[in-house]
Amino acid sequence: MAIKIVGTGSHVPSRILGNHDLEKMVDTTDEWIRTRTGILERRIADASETPSEMALHASRRALEMAGMDAKDLDMVIVATVTGDRIIPSTACILQKKLGAQKAFCFDIQAACTGLLYAIDIANAMIAQGAKYKKALVVGVEKLSSITDWKDRNTCVLFGDGAGAVVLEKRKSSGDIGGILASKLASNGCHADILQVPAGGSEMPMTHEVLDQRLHTIRMEGQEVFKLAVNEMVKACNHVISEVGISVGEIRWLIPHQANIRIIEAVGTRVGIARERVYVNLDKYGNTSAASVGIALDEIVRKGLLQRGDYVLATAFGSGLTWGATLLRW
Ligand code: ACO
Asked: What are the backbone angles phi and psi of residue 310, rounded to the nearest 5°?
């Protein structure tokens, strides 16, 4: 029996950083940011808003929607590149805050594709038998902590936030919802085009590293752009043909919210009408592993999904990693 998303939740910090604020920080304009990226503003976490705190708020909402108690969870998976600490995992910190004593907990790192990777891992673990039944999966990022606020090429793109889903085996055979197919992929040959060079064991933190801001995101934007469009389109087509539905049956395409031009190119090339492509990038910017989860939660809470609707999510990020997941609500 299929595994379903039975609850969604999200959280973004209250502090808004608009394009006009960025005009005062770097040599940029609201017009450039809007037309080249589609972003109008993004949310920035303060010092007390750690990823585990943002994840906690999103998780509580998802659990409430699912009607589930945290103590009944079998697993907690957090997808993030900006965890609270190097060790322990943010999932373990979240476990304590939630009171999910029974769960085993771990983080995964697949950058912007992290939530889709984590959903597939949870799905496979629940599907394998009776051992695990209930999973909480969270994508959370505090990208503001690894953003170079002096680099106009990158600092206009990113924001902070969390998106969570609760997964459970379908309860009745009359229920048609569930995760239908997923395609995950990586290509480490492109590892250097989108990276944070320092802070790991290869280049530990030093004063020099901090002075050169090597602990912040470095990106070859145009190269990422081209690969993102091509690979997301291929992954979307793969899951659509695996499930055997027509593109016209898809109610929502939820693309990773990185750039409106990437989103529109993917929608057009997959053949999904613009009004069925969900966009909230204007409000939040690129929140990496959180982005698909925040978008899905908005769709659900705005009542934009009916039982039986098909939803196609796709993402792309550092690694390079990418993927697509097709589900039925
Ligand atoms: N304001 C004004 N001018 C700018 C800015 C800015 N904020 N940023 C760059 N420019 C300038 C550049 O310096 C360049 O000037 P030049 O022609 O004089 O050299 C010009 O604008 C064009 O720069 P490009 O990099 O060619 O601009 P492009 O149209 O490619 O847009 C962008 C850049 C928005 C980064 C785009 O390439 C993109 O979205 N790439 C994909 C990013 C992405 O999806 N990342 C995903 C994952 S992120 C993660 O994993 C955490």
From this structure: -90, 135
Whole-angstrom distance, CA of residue 265 vs CA of residue 212: 35
pLDDT along the chain (329 residues), means of 10: 92 98 98 98 97 98 98 98 98 98 98 98 94 97 97 97 95 86 97 95 95 95 93 98 97 98 98 98 98 98 96 97 97
Long-range contacts of 206-213 (CB under 8 A, 24+ apart): 213/148, 213/150, 213/151
Domain end call among 119, 139, 169: 169
Is residue 190 annotated as part of the catalytic site, yes or no?
no
Same domain, 31 and 140: yes
| Same domain, residue pair 92 and 11 | yes
Distances (CA, A) of 320 to 52, 60, 227, 231: 25, 31, 9, 10
Host domain of residue 184: 178-328
Binding site membership of 237 for ligand 1 (Cβ less than 6 Å): no
C-alpha to C-alpha distance for 209 and 192, rounded to whole angstroms = 17
Distance 301 CA to ligand 1 centre (A): 33
Tell me, in angstroms, the distance from the centre of ligand 1 to residue 139's CA. Answer: 25
CA-CA-CA-CA dihedral for 317, 65, 92, 215, to nearest 10 = 30
Q: What CATH number is given to the structural domain containing 14?
A: 3.40.47.10
Per the CB < 8 A criterion, the answer to whether 309 and 67 are in contact is no
Give the pLDDT of residue 1.
Answer: 63
Cα of 42 from ligand 1 centre, angstroms = 17
5 neighbors 165 (Cβ within 8 angstroms): yes
**151 and 197 belong to one structural domain:** no
What pLDDT does residue 141 have? 98
| 57 flagged as catalytic | no
Backbone angles phi, psi at 175, to 5 degrees: -80, 130
**Of 324, 320, 290, 323, nearest to 310 (Cα)?**
324
